[in-house]
Amino acid sequence: MSGLDAVLISILPSIGVGLIFWYVMRAVIRADRRERAELARIDAEEERQAAAASGIDEKPKSDAA
User: Fold this and answer.
1) Burial zone of 36 (CB within 10 Å; 0-12 exposed, 13-18 middle, 19+ buried)
2) Which pTM was predicted?
3) What is the 3-state secondary structure of the chain?
C-alpha cells in the first residue's frame, strides 16, 4: 500500500460523513422554507377571511383624484 492509498483510505470516511451531513442539512433547510411559505399562505387566507367576515376591505382605498 502506497502513501497515497493510505491517505485516500483515511480521508474517504470523512468525505462521506460530510456529504451525508450536507444532504441532511439541505433537506432540513428546504423543509423549513416550504413550511414558512405554507404558514404565510395560511395566515394570509385567514386574514382575508376575517376581513371579509367583518366587512372590512383588504386594501385601503387611496384618496387620489
Assistant:
1) exposed
2) 0.63
3) CCHHHHHHHHHHHHHHHHHHHHHHHHHHHHHHHHHHHHHHHHHHHHHHHHHHHHCCCCCCCCCCC
Q: What pLDDT does 60 receive?
A: 61
- Distance between start and end Cα atoms, the chain: 85
Asked if residues 10 and 20 have their Cβ atoms less than 8 Å apart, the reply is no
Name every residue whose Cβ is closer than 8 Å to that of residue 23 and which is 6 or more positions away in sequence: none
Q: How much is the pLDDT for 36? A: 98
Average the pLDDT over 33-62 and give the result: 87
9 or 65, which is more confident: 9
